[in-house]
Every structure is written in structure tokens, then in C-alpha cells.
Amino acid sequence: MRIAIDYTAAIRQGAGIGAYVRSLVSALLHQDQNNQYTLLTSGRPTAQRPFPQGEHVRGKATLIPDRYLNILWYRWRIPLLPATLFTGPTDIYHGPDFALPPLSRRTRTVVTIHDLAFLEHPEYAVPSLAAYLQKVVADSVQRADVITTVSHEVSRTLIKHFQAPAEKLATIPAGVAPYFRRETNPMLLAATRHKFSLKHPLLLAVGTLEPRKNHLGLIKAYHHLLQQKKAPAMLAIAGGKGWLYEETQKLVSELKLEKHVRFLGRVSDLELIHLYSMADIFAFPSYFEGFGIPPLEAMACGAPVITSNTSSLPEVVGDAALLVDPHSVEEIAHAIDRLLQDEQLRQELRTKGYQHVKHYTWEHSARKLLSLYERLAQGETNFADKDFGI
């Protein structure tokens, strides 16, 4: 087979969808040496995020900036400029970032939808991005031969909003990189603790500073516990600045929590492993997630997890985490206090977490995707997950 994959997100985005595409494609190329892959990007790759290497893979940059390709492909939908003009003859084209460009009629198509937050919770989405996704997702869902999602919850919302046929839906979950494992070396942990001036007990959160991640609710819960003298010594938040990040930093100032709350910014994977490993509690009270990798990474490193009882998160964490209503500051605070006071419960969640995260590997996801490509090439039309209930 000749398989083309839009690799733009993998080049342009450090985390989120970019990390998903890089990890999934890397595992796919490692497993499959028989088929030919073309990785297409708008703009050139970088030294930090190059094209993968291999005899069965080639990188192809259009050299047309994203802005103009978006206009040509997704606003004007110019059929005279199909993506296959750049990739060459292609049996299967996979758009792993919500969108499908114009393509040759002979090309079978796969599109990946990561979440529908722009429809379910438009208040948490950047307006310009929401407007773009409303258009391209509707078009891609209609045109795709197969729609892959990162969770069954996303599949259900696709049926709800777009009447997507169940037989076109297949779940390809994210995985956890194998190097996310608990670090116990006291010197390494001490170095990271010193770098970020952290104290114990430590409450850790990971995620871009934006409204959807609900850092405001977590900070309010922490402040509530601090007033009752039940709070962990410190709350550390690792993640870059996103949409409306100023509100989060402003709240810390208003509540006079500067000595107790640390904004760590973007951290390396190695630092993240150390942070997960030293955290007494990991909290991820996001309002909405299509999947949610940080709770699984935290489990792999032995951190007891608190997360939301909404969207896909219960599906992703199973019974290996405490679930809370993200809209309830009191519930978040109670869960933090409960874990902080109960060492047996923390150990129980660690044990469950270690076992649960074994189900999420990029190798497993890549095998499922390769099987999907093969079935699509053979003319199969029903891709519904056997364990998917509607």
C-alpha cells in the first residue's frame, strides 16, 4: 500500500495532537516495513522535530504556509490542488488532525477526530479555532471512509452532532511512552525539586494554562484547604501559557498564594517524569477531554490521580483514580484532603494505576491502525469497535 499521512501537527505542535501524531506514526513505521509511507507537511520540518527516517518512508513538504493551504483546501476547497499532487499516487490518505484536504477520487480516506469541545463546550474554545473546526469537521466526517477517534466518548458525540454512521467509527486511543516510569533516584529527584523550589507534600497539575483545564477550580480548592490548614505544602502547575492564561495567574495573586503555587512553564519529558514521581497527588480536574494523557503518565510514574467524572476521563482512567465533579470546588478539595490523609488509599491507587496504564501503549494503537488500513484497502466498510456500545 501507498499510505500518506498529514504530518503537519507533528512538526508544528510540541504537545497535544502533535505528540499524538509523532508517537503513533513512529510506532507504526517501526512495526510496518512492508508498506510505503509519505509524510506530508506544510512548511519544513525542524531540527527538533524532523521527519522520521527509513527506507519505507519519505517526507514531503509543500513549502506552502499553513495559512494559505487552509484557505485553498478548507475554505475554498479548490479541487485542482489536491494533496495527492504533493504526495503522488496514494492508496490511503490519513488526516490525523480533524481535517481532510481535497484528494484524488481513487484515494481512500481516514480522518482522526480528537474531541468535540468546540461544540460541546464552546466557552472553552478559542472562537477562531472553533469556527474553523465546525466547518472542517463536518466536511471531513461526511467525506471520510473511516473516522478514528481517541475514545468511545468522542465517537458517541460524533453520532450525536453529525449523525456519523457507527460502522465508520473506530477508536485508536493514545498511548504512554515507555520511558514514563517511576524515578526513585533521590539525587535526580532532589535536583528537580531544587530547580523548581518545590516542597512536600506536593500537589501536581499538568496542562496548558487555559480555561478548559480548570486550573482555576484547582487553585480555589487548594486555597480552601489552606484556609483549613489541610493543604499540601505546595501546588505546582506544569504547562505552557495558553488562551486566557492571565486569569489563572491573576487568581493566584488575588488569593495571595504566591508562596504556595508554582507555575513551572513547559518542562522536558525527563523533568515531567521526576515531577510525576515526586508528586504526592496528581490532579487533573479538566472540564472536557477527548482523551487525556497526563493522568495515564502520572499513573505510570506512581502518582495517585484525581480527575474529572466528565467527558472521556472516566473511560480513560477506569477505577484507578478518584473521580470528582470539576465544577465543584468542594469535591476537588475533599478528594485532595482524602488522599493526603489516607496512605493506604494512595498506595491502592498507585497499584491500580501501574496495572491500568499497561493497556495504553503506542504499539497497540499502531497495530490497530495498521489493521484498519489493511481492511480499508481490502474494501471493508464496517469498522465499528466490537466493544463499542451506542
UniProtKB/TrEMBL annotation:
Coiled-coil residues: none
The keyword Transferase belongs to this UniProt entry's keyword annotation: yes
Q: What range does the record give for the signal peptide?
A: none
Q: Which Gene3D superfamilies match?
A: Glycogen Phosphorylase B
- Report any Pfam family annotated for this entry: Glyco_transf_4
**Glycosyltransferase subfamily 4-like N-terminal domain sequence ranges:** 16-176
Tell me the Gene Ontology biological-process terms attached to this UniProt entry: lipopolysaccharide biosynthetic process
Q: Which domain of life is it from?
A: Bacteria
Q: Where is the Glycosyl transferase family domain?
A: 195-355
Which keywords are on file for this protein? Transferase
Q: Which GO terms describe its molecular function?
A: glycosyltransferase activity
Q: What is this protein called?
A: Glycosyl transferase family 1
Q: What is the lineage of its organism?
A: Bacteria, Bacillati, Chloroflexota, Ktedonobacteria, Ktedonobacterales
